[in-house]
């Protein structure tokens, strides 16, 4: 089965849960788009911004009823993710020319990083930044709203996740499409950087893992014309830890949680790392294995079975520490995709050992970064569904903790956004209607919610409840 055929099936499976997930177990080809569920009294009301995978559509801002409030068609044209700042400012990638889609730092074929105002005027530009997957502004560690640290400073330092072409004989004999973190000051001068391959020896990978990686380092064509590279680790999220209770409690004991340190999610290796900002060393690692005999060590203590109780994480996205001012602050929040990732011994599902870890459902997990104890988990099982694949996005996706304690989840492969309560009730749902012309998929990398007051250019919209019909009695009229 081709990847897009699989995703189409996954989209239909997700659509089957739109109205009554306990009764909807079929795979329809016709289903609604836009806002399909909305319970205003249970939601954190605001605007939601997301980038489409359609080059001509760019970035879209919607209200809770799914109405398009604004669209920037030249920002994040199939690049990601756009972010909304307080004041009606939008950040993201902009192509200097239609063909310049690259994701390599300082490369002439790469996109620019920009901040534009409500009317689309560029207020800040980092030329040829080649950003991919994530970036953060000074004063807001995770890139989304928290009452304690509004996302409102685009003029200061910016952390950008980009790429560099490198070589490292211990990783592979092939050229690497390496992940590159770079921090620039207000004048776009580089003041800090980090290259993933230079810290390979600090990453704890099993021998079989490294052997397979050497032969098959996810080598493929990049967005730079004519260049291939091994996307060996595939970092898809990077954020500051930010102020947190662990650091406040004991700066020596919890030195790894220094607010300036950076946490990254590495999809292809099923790992998450914390990077010490001053030394650039990896000082905290989660993954790649979560077996019953795997031992988690932290602060001089061993936590037996902590890894197995947390459960195998596969192909995860948007790993970050929940920012101060939000319920669960200090815990780690992860969209654990499942799907396929990793390196290891060959098996029937992975004949050469590439992407040997596989699972056909997703979950969102929140856990204590010291002990790995699960604080909250959301999946089809927690929603009372029989089939785990009814909550599933094998790649992209995200989870944002909201001020009211709910979580905004992007099931990105199927273009589905859901706001869920701590008790797993879906109180808002939206299905993206922006499909690619050829691929026929509505992928969204990450959707983010901002309060109404982030957009002073608009009056607060009237909220209208959306109550879907019962799937079992709903009919499409003939004719």
From TrEMBL:
Keywords for the protein's UniProt record, in alphabetical order: Transferase
A single Gene Ontology molecular function, please? aryl sulfotransferase activity
Q: A Pfam family in this protein?
A: Arylsulfotrans
Establish whether keyword Transferase is in the entry.
yes
Q: Which named protein is this?
A: Arylsulfotransferase (ASST)
Question: What species is given as this protein's source?
Answer: Pseudodesulfovibrio hydrargyri
């Amino acid at each position: 089965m081709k990847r897009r055929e699989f995703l189409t099936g996954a989209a239909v499976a997700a659509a089957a849960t739109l109205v009554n997930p306990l009764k909807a177990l079929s795979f329809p080809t016709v289903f609604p788009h836009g806002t399909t569920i909305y319970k205003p009294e249970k939601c954190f009301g605001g605007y939601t911004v997301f980038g489409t995978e359609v080059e001509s559509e760019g970035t879209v801002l919607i209200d809770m009823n799914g109405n398009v409030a604004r669209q920037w068609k030249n920002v994040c044209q199939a690049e990601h993710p756009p972010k909304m700042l307080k004041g009606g400012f939008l950040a993201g990638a902009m192509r200097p020319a239609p063909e310049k889609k690259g994701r390599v730092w300082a490369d002439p074929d790469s996109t620019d990083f920009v901040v534009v105002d409500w009317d689309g005027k560029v207020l800040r530009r980092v030329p040829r930044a080649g950003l991919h997957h994530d970036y953060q502004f000074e004063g807001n560690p995770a890139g989304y709203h928290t009452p304690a640290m509004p996302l409102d400073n685009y003029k200061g330092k910016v952390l950008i996740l980009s790429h560099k072409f490198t070589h490292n004989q211990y990783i592979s004999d092939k050229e690497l499409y390496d992940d590159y973190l770079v921090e620039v000051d207000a004048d776009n001068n580089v003041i800090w950087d980090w290259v993933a391959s230079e810290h390979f020896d600090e990453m704890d990978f099993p021998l079989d893992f490294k052997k397979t990686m050497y032969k098959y380092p996810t080598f493929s064509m990049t967005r730079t014309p004519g260049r291939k590279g091994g996307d060996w680790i595939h970092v898809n999220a990077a954020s500051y830890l930010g102020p947190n209770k662990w650091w406040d409690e004991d700066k020596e004991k919890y030195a790894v949680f220094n607010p300036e340190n950076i946490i990254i999610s590495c999809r292809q290796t099923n790992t998450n790392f914390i990077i010490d900002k001053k030394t650039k060393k990896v000082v905290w690692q989660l993954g790649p294995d979560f077996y019953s005999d795997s031992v988690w060590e932290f602060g001089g203590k061993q936590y037996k079975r902590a890894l197995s109780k947390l459960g195998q994480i596969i192909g995860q996205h948007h790993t970050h520490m929940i920012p101060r001012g939000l319920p669960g602050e200090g815990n780690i929040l992860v969209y654990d995709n499942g799907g396929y990732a990793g390196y290891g011994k060959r098996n029937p599902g992975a004949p050469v050992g590439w992407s040997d870890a596989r699972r056909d459902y997703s979950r969102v997990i929140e856990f204590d970064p010291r002990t790995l104890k699960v604080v909250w988990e959301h999946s089809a099982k927690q929603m009372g569904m029989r089939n785990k694949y009814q909550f599933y996005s094998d790649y992209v996706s995200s989870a944002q903790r909201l001020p009211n304690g709910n979580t905004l989840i992007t099931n990105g492969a199927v273009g589905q956004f859901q706001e869920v309560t701590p008790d797993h009730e879906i109180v808002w749902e939206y299905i993206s209607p922006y499909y690619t012309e050829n691929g026929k998929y509505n992928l969204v990398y990450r959707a983010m919610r901002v309060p109404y007051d982030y957009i002073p250019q608009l009056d607060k919209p009237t909220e209208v409840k959306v109550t879907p019909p019962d799937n079992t009695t709903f009919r499409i009229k003939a004719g």
